[in-house]
Amino acid sequence: MPILGGLVLAAGASSRMGTDKALLPWPQGSPEGSTLLSSAILALKPFVCSVIVVAGKNADRITPVAAACGAFLVSNPAPERGQFSSLQIGLREVLARGCDAAMITPVDCPPLGAATLELLHAAFDKALSRGHWAVAPESSGRRGHPLFAGRALIDAFLNAPLTSNAREVKRAHAQFFEAVQVPDLYLPADMNTPEEYAAASARARQEAR
Length: 209
Known about the structure:
- The chain has a single domain, classed as Alpha-Beta Complex (Spore Coat Polysaccharide Biosynthesis Protein SpsA, Chain A), CATH 3.90.550.
- The radius of gyration is 16 Å and the shape is globular.
- A hairpin with a 2-residue loop joins strand 5 (about 135-140) and strand 6.
- About 40% of the residues lie in helices and about 20% in strands.
- It has helices at about 35-45, 60-70, 85-95, 115-130, 150-160, 165-170, 195-209; strands spanning about 5-10, 50-55, 70-75, 100-105, 135-140, 140-145, 145-150, 175-180.
- It is built from 7 helices and 8 strands, in the order E-H-E-H-E-H-E-H-E-E-E-H-H-E-H.
- Strands 1, 2, 3, 4, 5, 6, 7 and 8 form an 8-stranded mixed sheet that branches.
């Protein structure tokens, strides 16, 4: 059974949102006053040996949140290179901490419920036994996060040039991926604008009742 590390990508500039997405309030999955970052960390923690948060120029702002949730923070010194650079930095840290697999999520992807994550975790172990590399949640034909990545996929990400991106790497190895149908995947799977955030948080509040 692989040793999982959690990885939250939170180095983006949040330019379209107008405020740091990591610190946006999130109404579901953790105590009142939680943020997208704290909710992501706490969702991953039961399944992993440690959670790594990759920060950018927002490191000073999000360090207290990461620390309060028991996560470790690493900085991307050049976040303008894009999310793939943060992914590679985070995965190197995951491996350095003795893990050989990862649960990966962008901070702006609403966390799934514990039961769904349990389902994905079990599916990941079975997928690895069949020689596959990764498992992702899917709903209505669209895939979301977290991505459960085995060592083979981690190596593929790390061996890809910095000018590549995660989508290209996943497409090149699509035959090694498995999709798991889940009921609570938010669409869109991430939130880039205030309108997308408002819609997703309203749905989360409704489901939390």
